[in-house]
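thought: user wants a sequence for this fold. calling inverse folding tool.
action: design(structure=
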């Protein structure tokens, strides 16, 4: 492939990687990772609410990695409550798992920035040095894909397996008991999945530019070395 086309491909991939940096940073600052509804089971059981009456006991919530808000309803109107994970909810959430999610989000931002630099270096610098060439391009994008997968898996396990929404809804509640009624991941969570897809696209762009996968080259070298050994 001509050098001009390679420069264009690497430049496009670099812009996509930098967009991932901005997207992940923006997603971390929002409170739209999870949203849903919460049911006041205590109030609903007291009046034996069913059908449309149950709506008077259903509130809503949404939260992100740092903060969120709930509107609790127990038959007497909405009761809004804003919270932050640190330091308010440290005692009721799986704090180590939550910090791990934040850590890998930071790692994803860092490695996406590094991948951006490597793409731009290969577009306008010396493209075939060891870590600045094919190995570096594939290496950092594979790491970004891996980190984005870890962020989604760890956060999903925190929400579903550790019942994070229930813990938030029942924070500092002594009389009423709340239970998650509906729950789904919001758009900020799916932005991490978009980041995974973008880095996967970058890997394909590297291949389109005519650069073989590193392990393919290693196999070819092994075959050639073995043939040479047999000859001598």
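)
observation: tool returned 232 residues.
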């Amino acid at each position: 492939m001509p050098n001009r086309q390679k420069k264009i491909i690497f430049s496009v991939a670099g812009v996509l990687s930098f967009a991932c940096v901005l997207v992940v940073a923006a997603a971390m600052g929002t409170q739209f990772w999870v949203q849903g509804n919460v049911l006041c089971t205590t109030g609903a059981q007291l009046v034996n609410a069913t059908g449309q009456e149950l709506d008077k006991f259903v509130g809503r919530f949404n939260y992100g990695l740092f903060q969120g808000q709930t509107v609790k309803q127990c038959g007497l109107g909405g009761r809004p409550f804003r919270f932050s994970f640190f330091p308010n909810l440290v005692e009721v959430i799986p704090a180590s798992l939550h910090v791990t999610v934040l850590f890998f989000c930071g790692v994803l931002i860092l490695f996406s920035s590094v991948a951006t630099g490597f793409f731009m270096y290969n577009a306008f610098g010396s493209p075939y040095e060891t870590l600045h060439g094919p190995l570096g391009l594939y290496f950092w994008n594979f790491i970004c894909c891996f980190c984005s997968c870890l962020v989604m898996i760890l956060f999903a396990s925190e929400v579903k397996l550790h019942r994070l929404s229930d813990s938030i809804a029942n924070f500092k509640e002594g009389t009423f008991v709340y239970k998650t009624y509906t729950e789904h991941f919001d758009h900020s969570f799916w932005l991490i999945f978009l980041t995974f897809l973008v880095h996967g696209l970058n890997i394909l762009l590297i291949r389109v530019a005519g650069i073989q996968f590193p392990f393919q080259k290693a196999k070819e070298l092994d075959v050639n070395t073995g043939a040479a050994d047999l000859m001598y």
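thought: summarizing for user.
answer: Here is the designed sequence. The chain has one domain: 3-219.
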